[in-house]
Write a structure and sequence with these properties.
Bactericidal permeability-increasing protein, domain 1; Alpha-D-Glucose-1,6-Bisphosphate, Chain A, domain 4; 7-stranded antiparallel β-sheet; 6-stranded antiparallel β-sheet; 6 helices; AHSA1-like_N
């Protein structure tokens, strides 16, 4: 048992910055790469600054970190520093930046760094967040055997699930043309084929969240964060043209247009609707001072299903996101 927190209901956090320094020193110092007769080696963790915390509320554990790192490297003929300006909990693997500076440069060193050593460093960075939770999660929670709430107990289990993350390019670029075959449960969705199978109407509603537009956008599409508020392992490919399946495949759809921190346009359906019928949804994020308003505009909602659809969003999206991340009061 890590703390006195009945049913793991209250917010608890733990500062893990020193552990992070020790972790990266152990994992990174000594890494080396050899190519074309040239060997380059990481010799020290020169600096690690920023914040690294593990937090829990209502049984759900998340890691929140934003770090800056400098590593010293050397070869027989040169030495220098690798600077990584951002290592954050929501940084995608392809978004890591590695800036090189040399005290003395050998033209053979740079390609060895880029092609052989940096990929090893990136792998350590990718595994940092899940390891942080695995190592420190139990320190900020009551053991599951002491928890009587089914809700928080289930959250504890889900906190240690590693979500399926689909490798991708930049968030607003189309997917590679070489894709894994999709399950038969969702066919190729074409915008022009989305002919209404019902008499339909439009629906508009909104909600305000106590967070930034950037955080809210990330929460809606990043697989790791989607896993937290859906309390299940999602199948999410957060690119334009990428599919998603949520809540045990009860909800499925396709991202049409993604404007980071601004808007999400998608096709969306409940799985018991007539085959091939999708609602077109545009979610816009308007950030104000200290809060962000999320606006929902839905086209193609089956007449008679308006209340069901809005309730679905209020219960499964709005309320659970607020409860999971503390983004506002739940009425």
């Amino acid at each position: 048992m890590g703390v006195q927190n009945p049913n793991n209901w209250h917010w608890v956090d733990k500062n893990c910055i020193q552990w992070s320094k020790d972790y990266f020193t152990k994992k990174l110092v000594g890494l080396k790469a050899t190519a074309d007769g040239t060997t380059v080696k990481v010799t020290s963790l020169r600096s690690l600054t920023g914040d690294a915390d593990v937090c829990q509320r209502k049984g759900r554990i998340i890691s929140i970190f934003d770090l800056q790192m400098k590593l010293s490297f050397e070869s027989e003929t040169a030495k220098g520093v690798i600077s990584i300006p951002e290592i954050a909990f929501d940084t995608e693997p392809e978004d890591y930046q590695f800036n090189l500076s040399f005290d003395k440069e050998d033209e053979k060193i740079r390609p060895v760094l880029r092609r052989n050593l940096i990929p090893q460093i990136k792998e350590v960075l990718i595994n940092f967040g899940p390891t942080l939770i695995q190592v420190h999660g139990s320190d900020i929670q009551e053991d599951a055997s002491h928890v009587h709430s089914k809700f928080t107990k289930e959250n504890q289990k889900l906190s240690y699930i590693k979500p399926k993350v689909v490798e991708r390019t930049a968030i607003n670029k189309s997917v590679d043309t070489k894709k894994e075959p999709q399950s038969e449960s969702i066919s190729d969705i074409k915008e022009e084929d989305n002919v209404p199978k019902y008499n339909v109407t439009t629906l508009d509603f909104s909600s305000t969240f106590n967070t930034t537009a950037e955080q809210l956008y990330t929460t809606l599409i990043q697989p790791e964060r989607v896993a937290l508020w859906t309390r299940s392992e999602p199948d999410v490919n957060p690119v334009e043209g990428g599919r998603f399946r949520l809540f045990g495949r009860n909800i499925e759809g396709k991202f049409l247009k993604l404007i980071p921190n601004k808007s999400i346009e998608m096709l969306w359906r409940i799985n018991d609707w007539k085959e091939g019928h999708y609602t077109r949804i545009i979610i816009t994020l308007n950030q104000g001072e200290g809060e962000t308003k999320m606006n929902f505009h839905l086209e193609g909602v089956p007449i008679g299903e308006e209340e069901l659809v809005q309730q679905n969003f209020e219960d499964k999206y709005i309320k659970t996101i607020k409860m999971t991340f503390g983004f506002g009061a739940v009425l």
